[in-house]
Amino acid sequence: xxxxxxxxxxxxxxxxxxxxxxxxxxxxxxxxxxxxxxxxxxxxxxxxxxxxxxxxxxxxxxxxxxxxxxxxxxxxxxxxxxxxxxxxxxxxxxxxxxxxxxxxxxxxxxxxxxxxxxxxxxxxxxxxxxxxxxxxxxxxxxxxxxxxxxxxxxxxxxxxxxxxxxxxxxxxxxxxxxxxxxxxxxxxxxxxxxxxxxxxxxxxxxxxxxxxxxxxxxxxxxxxxxxxxxxxxxxxxxxxxxxxxxxxxxxxxxxxxxxxxxxxxxxxxxxxxxxxxxxxxxxxxxxxxxxxxxxxxxxxxxxxxxxxxxxxxxxxxxxx
Length: 320
Ligand code: TXA
Ligand code: MG
Prior knowledge:
Elements: H1 2-6, E1 8-9, H2 12-20, E2 25-27, E3 34-38, H3 42-52, E4 61-63, H4 67-70, H5 79-88, E5 93-98, H6 105-108, E6 113-117, H7 122-130, E7 135-136, H8 151-158, E8 164-166, E9 178-183, E10 186-191, H9 197-204, E11 208-209, E12 233-236, H10 238-243, E13 250-254, E14 263-266, H11 273-288, E15 294-298, H12 305-317
Parallel strand pairs: 1-8, 2-8, 4-6, 5-9, 10-11, 12-15, 13-14, 13-15
Antiparallel strand pairs: 2-3, 3-7, 4-7, 5-6, 9-10
């Protein structure tokens, strides 16, 4: 325990030094915690894939302090994406932009575009302002498992793999960023996430949404089975969830109404989607640790962040 404790804290200087030296550092962002390395250092980036047991065909997001700083690493940003960047960055938005040659192919799995995020969390912002390289960072979980929303989640699973975790408390958004790019001149959502599609459409009009597929895993966030607890997860619509009897060997994840007399976590008693998103991954982890055979979760209404929450639940429920 002592070792684990000593590996986390708020020492930005130490985090910067470790990253400069090619080590892996857990970083807080407003979406989920990241497993960060110097994006320009191929050896450091390759450590990310090993630590997560992640296939190298699944590309990484780079994180910069500002769009200004990021221009060193990407070519011209399409107008519509500039509009989105001006409105929602820093924040839970990732843009796919043509990369410059200084971004190693390993970061993008050989794809011509790189995924770029400007996180708003003050600790990681301060870190990014201190260093003179972007950070490549996937979510800090073993490949396929639930994303971490606290420093403890990171240390529970990757303590041997990280040199340090910058502890920025609990992630406010709780869902990974929404990934957006241009395809056939259309603004396209590649991964639903912490920025609701309705918010994006209110600024630039209708967008298209890419259906996910495991036959095309090089496309963003599109691996079908993902975000999974170890226990089998079954999803029910609201009606069926309400009517299903409570069983002792099952755990329940409800949206708004608790299941009485059962092991149950409720995402938001007031039905608030932001609160539900913030709680989702932490509650799935807690239920995964219960001594039960199955987790049963209630699907949310398909609006706002409910769409991204349901997307994560559906992928978590897929068995391979
Ligand atoms: O909120 C987030 O986005 C978090 C925090 C740490 O920033 N990061 C995150 O990274 O969720 P990760 O690696 O778990 O998910 C990134 C997704 C992957 O599914 C990957 O396929 C896709 O982004 N992606 C990254 N670069 C891409 C590219 N150049 N082209 C297509 N897809 C890309
Ligand atoms: Mg991930």
